[in-house]
Amino acid sequence: MVDQIARLPRTASPPFPGFSLDSVRRGAEAILIPVGALLATAIVFGLFVAAAGADPLETYSLMYRGAFGTWFSWQNTLQRTAPLLLTALCVALPAKLGLVIIGGEGALVIGGLVSAAVGAALIGAPPWLLLSLMALAGMAAGGAWIALAGALRQFRGVNETISSLLLAYIAIALMNHMVEGPLRDPASLNKPSTPPLGEANMIGSIPGLDVHWGLAFGLIACLAAYVLMQRTTFGFGARMVGGNVRAARMAGLSVTTLSMITCFLAGASAGLAGMVEVAAVHGSANASLVAGYGYTGILIAFIARQNPLAIIPVALMFGGIAASGGLLQRRLDLPDATILVLQGIAFVMILASDTLYGRFRIFQPRG
User: Fold this and answer.
1) Residue 186: exposed, middle, or buried by beta-carbon count in 10 A (0-12, 13-18, 19+)?
2) CB 204 within 8 A of CB 128
3) pLDDT of 21
4) Can you tell me the mean pLDDT for 32-37?
5) Residue 192 Cα distances to 6, 51, 105, 125, 286, angstroms
6) Closest Cα to residue 353, out of 61, 102, 44, 89?
């Protein structure tokens, strides 16, 4: 018997444990398809720019210079990247459970409004305490706003995509009402705003950079989200719900609890972005909070395939695109909405490319 066992063919062990060609194929597919969609976006946008009477190559050259050409451009890009990191997480985290939440703009606005109200009420308190309470208030408000969309889905069966989008419009209307009414600073004449925080209560810059600490908050949030979703039992449960809700329920997982917690964390990240915009950029809550960061975050999350780490380079790219808009307007006399056209084309291409996954034999696992 021993001799017979010894003569049995042995299965060759892989030279690198945990490594397989199938994982390489999956990774290549996850990278190459979005890259192809972005290349198609560049071609279509180039045709649009040419139709507008500008040179596409000069346009892309100016976009690069405006985003990454100088140290000033880099800092401007990083400044715009900070809120995009957080609003992209607002989309990416619920997507792990199969929830399409697109109301990050509303969570950012409501988080900024509530944090500004808290900051105005605590003027005179130590800056560290004031900013800490502002951050907690903004995160709580943003988290509750997106959790409301999750609750409507879990308890009433309301589509979370529609409800989160409508809640964004409600948040903007509520902000306008409060800023122009009960919370308005009497000194703000032409542009209604909440009372200013004051220079002493503003979030400072990262040492050596002319970029506020919101960038560090965004990077830390992306790293924490990756660890939560990929290295914890909570994240495993969330991904199981996203893969098969019925199987998750049969395994004893509380789908409602996982969904509500994830929606709250997602909204909290966007709410923190609103607080940072108030305490690091504007100094008060006003109409400037509605800058479209929440909507751009949707596109970033889709391109990154809801991967918190992949969000970082994608957000950097779109931060650079936003930073270059002014240069295009000055040099080529293109309208300010040109950048929005680029983002719209990219969004359509990314959605179209989603149908290509699993269709190429080269990326399919070998049985």
Assistant:
1) exposed
2) no
3) 74
4) 89
5) 84, 39, 20, 24, 6
6) 44
